[in-house]
Structures are given as C-alpha cells and as structure tokens.
Amino acid sequence: MSTEALKKTEDIGIIKSWAIKHLWPVDRVYDDFASPGGFTIFTDGEGIRLTDITGKKYIDCFGTIMTNSIGYGRKEIADAAYEQMHKFHFAPDHEPSVPKIKLAKKLADITPGTLSKVVFGLAGTDSIETAMKIAWKYHKICGFSSKYKIIGGYTYHGSTLGAMSTGWRPPLFTWEDYPPLLPGMVHIASPYCEICDFGLKYPDCGLACAKQVERVIQLEGPDTVAAFLDVPIPSTAFIPPTEYWKTIRSICDKYGILLILDCVQSGFGRFGKWFACEHYDVVPDIMVLGKALTGGYLPMSAAVVRKEVAQKFEGGPEVALKHSITFEGHTVTCAVALSNLEIMERENVVENSKNMGQYLFEQLQTLKKYEIVNAIRGGLGLNCRVELVKDKQRKQRFSPEENAKVMRMLKEKLISVGLFGLFANPIPIIPSLIITKSEIDEIVIGFDRVIGEIQNEICG
Question: Could you tell me the residue range of the domain that residue 400 belongs to?
Fold first, then answer.
C-alpha cells in the first residue's frame, strides 16, 4: 500500500483501527492511545522534519527519543546498510566481522581515557545489565565475591528487571507493579541543585549529595558494594555541581568500587561534547552507550570498559564473562554506526550541538514573559526543557488532563513531536544535532504562539 494510497480517508481509518486493535502501546495509557488524536502515524522524514500519514508536517523537537543526531533521510546511511547486506548480513557464532572490529576500535578512539574494550548490545537497557554483570564478575575475579550491591540515584536506566531495579524516578516511571526487584540496589539522593533533596543551597551545602554517597557506602559496608551507577547529566537538563563527579570518582577509587556512567542519552554530542562526562573531566570504569550510536537508524548499544578492568577477564574459562545476546554487534548495524559516526565527524555535529544548544537556550528565555512559564533549563548542548505551571506564584501544576491538553495543542500547531503519550511537562526540546539557527527560530516562534494560547485557554 503506497503512501499516496494511504492518504485516502478510508485507508487511513483502516490502518488506525489495526493499530488500536493489534499494538500494545508503550509508555502511555491505552484509553489515551485509543482516543481520537491519541497517536500519530509517520510515513516520511527529512532533516529535522516529519510527515504523517495524512500529509501533515511536523518539526521533531524530541530527536526521536534522543537518537536522531544527523536527521532523517540520510542516503549515505541507507547505502552503508545496503552494501553490507549484499556482502553478508550476519556473522555466525558471534565471530567478529570487519565492521564490528572497526566500530569497536572507533569507540575506543573517541571515548575518554583508557576506555577501550567493547561489548555490544541492542539497547541501552541491556547494556546497563551487561555493565552490572561485568562489575559483579570483576569483583569475583579479584577475590571479592561479597561485592554485589549497586548504588545510584533515582534515575531511569531501562525497562528490564535489572535495569529498572537500579532506579526509576517517579512519577514518570515507577516500580510498584513489578515486585520483587533485584536485591542489593541502593538508591541515594540526586545531585541536582534545582530540586535538592536536602533542601540546601549550593555552594553552602558543602556538596552534601556527594558526601552522602560515602556515608551510604560505609553504612552498607564497602566489602558489599560493587558499583556506583548514574547518568552524568540527566535528560531533564539538571546540571550537577562542577566538582560532584570528580568527588564520586575519588570515593569509588577509595573503596574499590567501579564507576558505571549511563551515557545512553548523554552520549554522542547531545550535551555539546562527545560524552557528557567530559564536562567534568571524569572517566568511568564502564560507559554505557546507545540511542545516537547509530543515529537511530538501527538499534544498537554498547558497554565500553576501561583497559584496567577488561584485562582481568583475559585468561581461561574461569575469568570469562558468561554473557550472550544473539544480535549483539550485528554486522549491518555496525556498518550503519560507522557511517553515522563518520558523518558526525565530517559535519562537526558535536560542535554544532554546543553552539546551537546555547543559541536555543538563549532564545527560549523570551518565553519567560508568560506567567505559566516557570523555568527554562539547559545551556549545555541541544537539551532544553520548558516547564509550564498553572499558577507560578502558588507553584500549582497542571493536572494530568490539562497536561494532555497542553501536549495536544502543541502537536496540533505542528510544533513538536515527543512524549505526548506521557504528557511530558517540563516539555523537552531536544532536536537533531544538525539543527540550524533558522530552524531554532521557527521552533521558538511556534512555542511562543502556542504557549500564549495555552495561557489564555487553560489559565485565562
């Protein structure tokens, strides 16, 4: 069935009915998904723009869940996949292919410090689990089998049992439906000054968020803690204090604990550097990557391990990592990832993220003229958030129903595509890293118009 044919009203209705009948919608309530306007079927994309099944055009302000670094419709990527498929598509028995070897070498070259050994996966979620398994086995090899606990903040790391046990943050993701979770997961306050869990003000706080980590390690027993796991900078655009991550690195070193950084969302230029941890000059023991590794063209993730940790696994069966995913390091996906990274380097995409991110953040400040704009977060790369409230003086937030209406108003005005099923507020503005000033101006002008309408209609 062609795109042109699908534009017929009756055909669109049939496709939508199949979606409601046969798809299990993730990250959203079924009743909302099944309601009129509850989902959008996209058929075409070019640059930062998308076209839906009716021919309506949108600007993708969410970067396809933060994967879309180089934009839609890159023929060079498709050609790389096509060429590799014609040679051979999948190596048997996990034998290394040339694209897989080249990609591992490339990741070793661009990641900081001595990160140099790569275990591939399919999504950030399973590579988080890979990182935890590496940490557990590492300590066992070193003679510390009692080290099994993982300490980390209430941050989303994925939806499999192990990943979600490490810490979902309410209200967006919660865990009460899935007990029992993995034992040994210890959660601590997050280092975000805007929402300080201690009610303190930086720098007078004395970096209480970092000091609590050492206190928790001492309470749990250093001989029981395997790793500290968190994101260097969250997608919510809260920026940790400058010295936070170096302090955490020194604490981990002091107690023989591995530092795992989840850079699934913050890797590959999103925060204006190749990897967000570079803002803090910190190298983790294991860095977890995903999303923009392939520009979103095919699913792939990776756990990249420091040489000093990986060397412990070199030897016979007793030190081998018992781990296998059928499609890890898929030959075609590796070819696509290599093409994506080549484009990013050639077009200086990371530098563009830095420059355009600052420009976006500055232009969004104009929205503060509206009473319902409570905060604008960002300033590091193309990762900004606009928080709307019903009443700024009383800090009254929108109800879920009002949030849903806000998201639909944005969508109807062709401004944004993102987590509409989740009624995301603060609203993410996380576009492709190839965005231009004129496209940013278009986004800001659109938001300005719609936020004015929202203020009049919902709060007026």
Answer: 3-70+348-458
For 194-224, b where at least 16 C-beta lie within 10 A, e where not — what string? eebeeeeebeebebbbbebbbebbeeeeeee
Global pTM? 0.94
Query: Does 441 lie in the same domain as 391?
Result: yes
Q: What are phi and psi of 268, to 5 degrees?
A: 60, 45
Over residues 127-147, the pLDDT tens digits come to 999 999 999 999 999 999 999
- If DSSP codes are grouped into helix, strand and coil, which group holds residue 285? coil
Q: Indicate the residue among 311, 346, 381 that finishes a domain.
A: 346
**Is the distance from CB of 350 to CB of 433 less than 8 angstroms?**
yes
The number of domains in the chain is 2
> Of 320, 346, 372, which residue constitutes the final position of a domain?
346
Q: Which helix (H) or strand (E) holds 188?
A: strand 185-188
User: Are the C-beta atoms of 357 and 382 separated by less than 8 Å?
Assistant: yes
Cα Rg, the chain, nearest whole Å: 23
